[in-house]
Design goal:
The chain is mainly α and about 90 residues long. The chain contains five helices and no strands. The mean pLDDT is about 90.
Length: about 90
C-alpha cells in the first residue's frame, strides 16, 4: 500500500515533533472555544468571568498562542464549570 505524503512526513522526527507541538496548541484553543460555545458564552462573557480581556481569550483560542498560563487555564476551566487536567504522554 502506498504511503500518503503525510505518512511519509511523519517518519521525519523533526516534522513529527513540530506537528505534535502545533496539534497540542490547537487542541487547547479548540477545547476552550468548544466549551465556551457549549456554555453559550461569548469571548467577552468568558473574559469577564476569568478577569481578563476578550483579546486574551481570543489568543488562548487561537492555534498560534505559545504562552499558556496554568493559572489562567485553571480560571477558564472554573468559569466553564470544568476541571483542568494536565498530563504527560508519549
Amino acid at each position: 500500500m502506498k504511503k500518503t505524503i503525510f505518512e511519509k512526513e511523519m517518519e521525519n522526527p523533526k516534522f513529527r515533533v513540530l506537528y505534535e507541538e502545533v496539534s497540542r496548541k490547537m487542541s487547547i484553543g479548540e477545547q476552550i472555544a468548544q466549551l465556551r460555545h457549549e456554555a453559550k458564552m461569548s469571548q467577552l462573557e468568558l473574559a469577564k468571568k476569568v478577569s481578563t480581556s476578550r483579546t486574551a481569550i481570543a489568543r488562548y483560542e487561537s492555534g498560534n498562542y505559545n504562552n499558556y498560563n496554568v493559572g489562567t487555564l485553571a480560571r477558564i476551566a472554573q468559569a466553564l464549570h470544568k476541571r483542568l487536567k494536565i498530563s504527560f504522554s508519549s
